Amino acid sequence: MDGRLRALAIRSTFLFLLSLVLVAGFWYHREFYQIGFTNLLIIGGFVTFLVIWAARLAMTGELPRGRASGELTFTLDEGDRLLKRVARAVVRPTEGLRAPGIGRVVRAKYETGTEFARLLVEDAHRIFDGDLTDEDARAAGYRSASDLRKAEASRWRGQPDEILTILRVRVLGGSR
Fold first, then answer.
1. What is residue 176's predicted lDDT score, i.e. its pLDDT?
2. Based on the number of CB atoms within 10 Å of its own CB, is 110 exposed (0-12), middle (13-18) or buried (19 or more)?
3. Where is pLDDT greater, at 174 or 2?
4. How far apart are CA 77 and CA 87, in angstroms?
5. Fewer CB near the last or first residue (10 Å), C or N of the chain?
6. Confidence band (pLDDT; 50, 70, 90) for 26?
7. pTM for this structure?
8. What is d(CA 164, CA 49) in angstroms, rounded to the nearest whole number?
9. Got the DSSP string for 40-109?
10. What is the CATH number of domain 71-172?
11. Distance from CA of residue 90 to its chain's centroid?
12. What is d(CA 129, CA 93) in angstroms, rounded to the nearest whole number?
């Protein structure tokens, strides 16, 4: 079974079970009036809070990590590779890059300005362009380092002494 289909089945099952619990809660609700108004507010508020968090987790597949702390811009091809989970790394020239910290969530935007995903930065390191390996290029969704350099010729100088930043990222939740 496809991983996305399995995740959807698990989330849907979880939401169905959550629905059953809520329906049972309505039936049991008549008993809450006997414990008093203050207790009803505290317990009911806490249960409602848990239900909202559980539904959020079920729908996105991720725990909330707070607001995005930056953004990265991608071409349509790069964004497509990230959304299809072909690429798990982003390679950018370090000069002028405001690289997000490890563990931060960033907005992934197309060059047109449309946000297409949220990314969690799992790791980051810098290398010289001359030290870029085929493995680094495959992590970014390319066949080889030369293919990556050709595709990014407009962004890079292509000099062996140019410093590149490689961000290992993970797409959070479903795509938009």
1. 44
2. middle
3. 2
4. 11
5. N
6. low
7. 0.61
8. 44
9. HHHHHHHHHHHHHHHHHHHHHSS----S---EEEE-HHHHHHHHTTS--EEEEESTT--PPPTT-EEEEE
10. 3.10.400.10
11. 14
12. 9
Among candidates 125, 8, 7, 121, which has minimal Cα distance to 65?
121
Report pLDDT for 135.
Answer: 93
Residues with Cβ < 8 Å from 124, sequence gap 6 or more?
99, 101, 102, 165, 166, 167, 168
Residue 160 has pLDDT above 80, yes or no: no
pLDDT in tens, 55-79: 777 666 555 556 667 888 888 888 8
Which element (helix H / strand E) includes 31? Answer: helix 3-32
d(CA 165, CA 67): 23
Mean pLDDT of the chain: 80
Specify the residue for token string 């799992």.
122
Length of the chain: 176
Confidence of residue 168 (pLDDT cuts 50, 70, 90): very high
Residue 78: name the closest of 66, 60, 90 by CA. 90
Give the C-alpha separation, 81 to 101, whole Å. Answer: 22
